[in-house]
Design brief:
- There is one protein chain.
- This protein is α/β, with parallel strands linked by helices and 385 residues long.
- It is built from 15 helices and twelve strands.
- The protein has helices spanning 15-25, 40-44, 63-75, 86-94, 119-131, 144-151, 197-206, 225-234, 249-258, 275-281, 293-298, 313-325, 327-343, 347-362, 378-384; strands at residues 3-7, 30-34, 56-58, 78-81, 98-103, 137-141, 184-188, 215-219, 241-244, 261-264, 285-289, 306-308.
- The strands form two sheets. Strands 3-2-1-4-5-6 form a six-stranded parallel sheet, with helices on both faces.
- It is globular and about 65 Å long.
- 44% of the residues are buried.
Length: 385
């Protein structure tokens, strides 16, 4: 089985799955193609410094890799594509070749399906609906919301499978019982308005009276940075909130291993949120906005994480207070999060399931039955949501 995986840029969120697929099928049977260079900011954080692999094609950077990408696209038994290369996909489908398209949600709030009023989106939707009629075309929605968006516009008839991002998982999971003093809360990312970091700062300030040694660490930069620094002072929480500049992904994960709680505060513009995978893996107790794709898809409230409504300061504040006052519960939830990653959302589990599905489809056999996690029928996530 020859497989081509296509994405926009090489990233630490995509490579772990690629490594696992290459390990199983062999490097001669796998290629990972990136169609774009990372932007300057991501390049500074090391997004273009990954160790060269014989199966990586930098299709936007040299003619040889571009030629190889085009050949693999035409000849591969399976293509799994995260880009909207609809013309290329249509060509494969005309030849009855197995093709998967993975995508975050199309209709992100607040505009949502009003995007269809734009001719470009309307045309793209019509073309996608046409491709969805092919029995050789399968959709991998990155989370429940992405599945729901597509369920409303295309009839996949059992060819839509739950999917997501699969970040690096160490052979031995870190401990969840933090030894450092104080209560450490962490957030990392681009400081954009829809990331709703202001909600976190306001919620954090609610419980400083009960936990005066608590520290909130905010890692990153962006257009909201100055406003957030002023907000921290206004909430009389500045001495308990530290702002750090953007750091490489490896450093973010080190900070996760030192933190008790990781908060994802974004609204529905957060299509997935791979930091949830990473924080669960590193032993943080995750508190996440239910509007984020990863949270809605992976987290079961009060079991392997805590959920709150986006922008709800009081609800998030109560969760932070509860976890600060009850370390036993916090550790239990963090360990359950690690089990979720190990048993369902690791790159190795996703790769195994994906290859079994491809083998069945190429052989004309029924798809393997998966009840939860990656490659479970996406309609189950829609109904449960």
């Amino acid at each position: 089985m020859r497989i081509l995986q296509v994405t926009n840029i090489i990233s630490h969120h995509q490579l772990p799955l690629a490594h696992q697929i290459a390990k199983i099928v062999g490097t001669e049977n796998f290629r990972f193609a990136a169609t774009q260079r990372p932007n300057a900011e991501r390049a500074r954080l090391g997004w273009n410094d990954y160790r060269a692999e014989p199966w990586i094609l930098r299709a936007s950077e040299n003619d040889e890799d571009l030629k190889s990408f085009e050949q693999w696209w035409d000849e591969a038994d399976v293509v799994i594509c995260g880009e909207r290369l609809f013309d290329r996909m249509r060509d494969r489908l005309r030849q009855n070749k197995l093709t998967f398209h993975m995508s975050e949600r199309w209709w992100k709030p607040p505009i949502s399906k009003a995007r269809l009023l734009h001719p470009r989106f309307a045309l793209m939707t019509a073309r996608f609906r046409c491709m969805a009629s092919s029995m050789h075309f399968h959709f991998l929605p990155m989370g429940v919301y992405a599945a729901l968006d597509m369920y409303r516009i295309a009839a996949f008839a059992g060819r839509m499978w739950q999917w997501g991002y699969f970040t690096t998982v160490p052979q031995t999971m870190p401990g969840c019982d933090r030894k450092n003093q104080g209560y450490q809360v962490l957030w990392a990312g681009r400081m954009l308005r829809w990331k709703r970091v202001d909600t976190l700062i306001k919620a954090f300030s609610l419980f400083l009276g009960q936990c005066p040694d608590a520290i909130l660490t905010l890692v990153g930069d962006g257009p909201e940075r100055v406003y957030l620094e002023k907000l921290a002072k206004k909430m009389l929480a500045a001495r308990n909130i530290r702002f750090l500049p953007p750091v490489p992904a490896t450093e973010v994960r080190r900070l996760m291993r030192q933190s008790h709680v990781y908060v994802l505060s974004s609204n529905g513009n957060e299509g997935w949120g791979a930091v949830v995978n990473e924080a669960m893996t590193e032993g943080c107790c995750v508190v996440a906005s239910v509007a984020a794709g990863a949270a809605k898809t992976m987290i079961r409230h009060n079991e392997n994480g805590l959920l709150f409504s986006p922008g709800n300061v009081e609800e998030l504040g109560k969760h932070l207070i509860h976890l600060g006052e009850d370390p036993v519960v916090r550790i239990e939830i963090a360990r359950a999060g690690q089990r979720t990653i190990a048993h369902s959302w690791s790159p190795s589990v996703a790769a195994d399931r994906f290859l079994l599905l491809c083998d069945a489809l190429l052989g004309g056999r029924p798809a393997p039955v998966v009840s939860d996690g990656p490659l479970a029928p996406a309609w189950k996530g829609i109904l449960s949501g």
